[in-house]
Amino acid sequence: MIILKNKLFENIISLTTIKGLEYLLAFIIFPYLTRTLHVDGFGKIMFVQSIINYFVMFTDYGFNLYAPKVIAQNDDINKRGEIFAGIFGAKIFLLCIATLIFFILVLATNRFYTIDIFLYLVFYLNVIGSVIFPIWFFQGIQQMRYITIVNIVARVCCLAGIFYFVKAPDDYLAAAFFQAVVPLIAGICSWIILFSKFNEVFVLPKICDVKTAIKEAKSVFISMLAINSYTSSSVVILGLFSNSTVVGYYSGAQKIIDNIRRILEPILQATYPHISKLLQESKEKSKIFIKKAVIILGGGSFVLSIVVFLFAEKIVEIILGAGYQQSVLLLRIMAFLPVIITVSNIYGIQILIPIGYANAFSRILVCAAIINLILIFPLVYFYQDIGISVCAVIVESFVTLASIKAVKETKFFSI
To answer: At what angle do helices 337-345 and 358-410 cross, to 10 degrees?
Structure first.
């Protein structure tokens, strides 16, 4: 138990360092890009990035949630190597399919509409990087200090590149490149660490292990697909019904919400494999730990949401700069998303999945995607960025309430 606590503390520190660096760079890069690229250029980048996220999601296939759990529950080195090989082999297989689909869609679309092919190609580096970056492995063995190092290297390179090459709105391709290449750099560095520290992962994947990985991660993939349908898809739909400027207003506010929400993300990422491991040892201890997480993380995110709502105008002025006044209203509408999403993460990802109710959580997310599909088109058509902000709050609130209800029905514990 002491070892578990030490690993948890170390992982929280490591992940907090990563996120702390991300926030520091975000508060440098994000305002710089919104000012340098202007609303239209920033909106263009966010629109294409949202489309590329479909391919990232497809190649992840839920492994970023499935893999840490299964690796954390297998201490045998040989078995761990087989699991790694099976999962990574599955990701490479999915990357081949995604790349083929990507080029077919881009070339076909360009025949009927004029699109910025180079912008799509640059952002596709993010897909390749996400595949080769095995953050899930280090999370599963609870050795996140290695990921801290490679993330620092990658993000500092990104910062230097953006400030050196991005000077005007026409430099949006360079801005896209240095954002997309971060996981690629981190992935290359992480494989150097794997080669020197974890030789057991260097085994040829067996077809049966690849099939097993894809089959067992299927329910998590459905969950991620549903989540993606009401996150990235919202930006895509807004772009189709409006223009890059409106997308820029919404994306600016959404980015602020995402960065604030992620303040507590290091703890959530560290507790997930910890809870999975703890459940094998003591159900009662895991219940106590989860209850504390609900109080601490839920309360912390609630305070952050209050701050966002009260100081939205000042936050937009400082971070986004001039020309983003419309984002103030959007930020206030979405101000309580940090606490809503944090609570849904605890009940859904941290509780339902580890205790074996991944399918129940998947059904909740599929229902959320259907609700989003029903609401988003009329809301965006009539109210554009305001409508999509309201839709986001409604859908995320549903996920949270439904997850709480599902946990109570499992009778895992009463809260």
So the answer is: 90
How many structural domains compose the chain? 1
* 24 within domain boundaries: yes
Q: At a CB cut-off of 8 Å and minimum separation 6, what does 5 contact? A: none
Q: Which region among 66-75, 341-350, 391-400 has the lowest average model confidence (pLDDT)?
A: 66-75
Token duo for residue 85: 């090989």
Distance CA 312, CA 294 (A): 26
User: Tokens 């009260």 correspond to what residue?
Assistant: 310
Distances (CA, A) of 371 to 51, 234, 352: 21, 13, 21
Classify 388 as helix, strand or coil. helix
> Are 118 and 173 spatial neighbours (Cβ–Cβ below 8 Å)?
yes
Give CA–CA dist 269/190, Å, rounded: 18
Is residue 415 situated within a structural domain?
no
At a CB cut-off of 8 Å and minimum separation 6, what does 36 contact?
166, 167, 168, 169, 171, 175
Sequence-distant (≥ 6) Cβ neighbours of residue 190 within 8 angstroms: 133, 134, 135, 138, 146, 147, 150
Sign of CA pseudo-dihedral 379, 255, 221, 223: negative
Q: Structural domain of residue 127, as residue ranges?
A: 2-410
CA 9/CA 65 separation, integer angstroms: 20
Residue 102 is assigned to a structural domain of this protein: yes
Question: Poorest-confidence range of 121-125, 219-223, 311-315?
Answer: 219-223
pLDDT band at 26; cut points 50, 70, 90: low
Residue 342 lies in a domain: yes
